[in-house]
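Shipment paperwork, digital attachment
Item: protein structure file
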Amino acid sequence: MAAAAAMFVAATVVSICVNVFYRYVLESGLVWADEIPGYFLVWISFLGAYLAVRDRGHISFDAIIENLPSRGRGAALILVNLLVIAFLAVLFVLSLRMIAIVGDTEIETADIPQGLFMAILPIASAAMIAGLAADIARRRGK
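Attachment content:
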């Protein structure tokens, strides 16, 4: 997933640089080069969110949890993961519904279906659920 995120960052940089070249050197901008990097940013963000879940790199406010006894701390962290999994499950289901409804609609500047860009929502949700479930399993094994 890190390689995919890097690929989207590189594609964003290239498309923006090409558009700058077209706009200022050739005096003719590319209409798609403003919209598509925005969609790439969504992919970058959700892939990054997954990578942060995998590496336990998200910001957390753990002052309360750190003051709990060891057993309570583990239970609290599992509860937090379960709540986040519930949220991600809702995101997964609703994103599939959204893709089913508007996924065939093409973006405004190119003949590319929106569903292609929206696909990251269920992909990243499922990946984050798997990562959090692995963290729960690891904590329960302690």
